[in-house]
User: Fold these one by one.
Assistant:
Number 1:
Amino acid sequence: MNEVQLLKATHFPKATQIMKTLPYNQLENKLTSAQKKTISEYVVSRGIRILATIQTSNTNIPVFESETERYDSIVFLAINVKDLKKSALIYKVFMSIMPNPLVILFWDELKTRWVFSTHEKKKDGFLASKSLYEIQEGVSLVAVEKGLRFDIFDKTNLKTLYESWVERILQLELQARYNVYTTVSLKDNLLEKLVAMDEQINDYVKQAKKESQLNKRVELQQAVNKIKEQKAKLLEEIIE
């Protein structure tokens, strides 16, 4: 992965860019035995890179803090992994030892996967994941470099910046998966609705294949058809 090209194409301010390898020994003493096992099994040696840190001092974007949330610095990491399916698990490991909102771009030799999370403060000053957003491999770096720009983020404060970053990547996934070109809101996540429908359809189809009774298979097929109709109607409303 060409991280220099990525940051240049997406117009991240030069002052935010770090691009250095994070030594594992700086993390090791903060990890539990289970977390160390996760890192050793799924993260490539010397594969943890800090790409950028976005904070008030290098962007003039205000901090956001409330009783339940804190966004004072956003850390952008790229992690070379052996199995992209373990991205969410690895993200949670890093989140447990870093007190800042994280954006992590996971990559192997062929594909990439983005993981974000909305957060809430814990009493110890660290953050707990509220909602995890795992963007699938269908969103290529080429699409990101063409469609993601730092200057289009909402810079009201660091929270709005983080959330607009998530929304833009979700929008790119919506385009890649459904060929739908519209904005995505975390408050009314169209992509989440479509994915949930597809998952339910696949679940019913799997059940039907295993079902030996004809009447049960017919019921499951009717359920599939109903969800497909709902999905088609939703897509029609978007296009209109």
Number 2:
Amino acid sequence: MESSHPVAVEALGTTFSQGVPVTVVDVARLPGRTTPAPPGLDRFPAPGELWVSPALGALLDRLPDDRHPVPGTPAGTLGRAALAYPGELVAVVGHRSMDPAVTTERYADPRRADDIASPTHVATFTGAPLTDGMGGTYASVARLATILVVVPLLVLGASAARLSVSRRDQRLAALRLIGATPGRIAGLTAAEAVLTGAAGALLGAVGYGVLLSVAARLPIAGGAWYTADLWIGAPLRPQCEPGRDDRLAGPLRVRP
């Protein structure tokens, strides 16, 4: 977001390597300003420095120099906080504040219309959650899908409860006939409910942990997930933390 008290200039572009998009973030420190390091970097890039994601670094090692999508020799590797998903191709390039890369207006590329941004004066590199665009669409679809899943689950639960009540009444009646006291029958009923609920909760928790890595492989918004992004944890963490990417709003750039 543009700031009235900026410390740096940031621009966003997209290049391609063998048809695969490579996100290029150009940054420059404004003279006389104290500039924080962008997420995923341990310091602000010096003019001419190139920082790359692990996947982009591996790609550069495989390609000859004349086919590199981003010129220069990598000075460092971007950390987890700079990336939205594993395998993302991202480069962060440092510039002087008057270089054309951070002063010239940019125009949208129809191939990647949402991944182009003209140089903008910023005060921070920690983004904010999107409330419109594809981010809002994904959130709305997720809410609708949740409702569609919850309704049949409630119907299934009610049907299962009716069946279990009938069988339980038969068992309780048999216990009363053989002389069980009301207190003992109430205790057995409570114990049965507790054990059944505990077994279901344990099975659900184990299934969640086992299937987490499988769910992380499902692609959305351009790539798969980091497993940590899908881990709920205890207690629940906020949906968007400063300096992290929640797939809808990145720390270095806004993602669709």
